[in-house]
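Ex. 9. Protein: General stress protein 17M-like domain-containing protein.
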Amino acid sequence: MTGSFSPGPQNARPGMTPRLPTPPTGWPIGSYGTYEEAQRAVDFLADGDFPVQEVTIVGVDLMLVERVTGRLTWARVLGTGAASGAWFGFFVGILLSLFNSAPGAGIGPIIAGLVAGIAFGVIFAAVGYGSTRGKRDFQSASQLVAGRYDVLCQPRSAERGRDLLAKLAMRPSDVRKD
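Predicted structure tokens for General stress protein 17M-like domain-containing protein:
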């Protein structure tokens, strides 16, 4: 990493994103149930020539949501391992064939890479799945979500921001642009 070290928010200049995690500053000018609604509010502010660089969207009441996407079986684990290994092996095989100057040896490194990739992919998948000993027989996708999203603004522009967002809230929902 290059540049000077910034130990905290005291060294942050106005208008710059702090280098280390710091609590957000500003006054609340809106609160929304979804991130999409908060984004729409900030977009509305931008369309109204509002200085959006003074705005921060803050997720409050954070939750880690893990959505189960399917059941894991040995067949699925080994098939997925073989497929990912095949892609990696194919890539390595192509690289080896590009740098192979022997005549007539164009497809050999690709096939060797493919076979080795499948073998190693299956082995690594089997070891990884076997080490869980049946304690995690499902696939899932994790996502960090918030219970609500607050839009904060620097105090010098907060009143104007609240006024603009009040106009957005008073518009009929079919007039709002997506």
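Check your answer against this statement. DSSP finds four helices and three strands in the chain.
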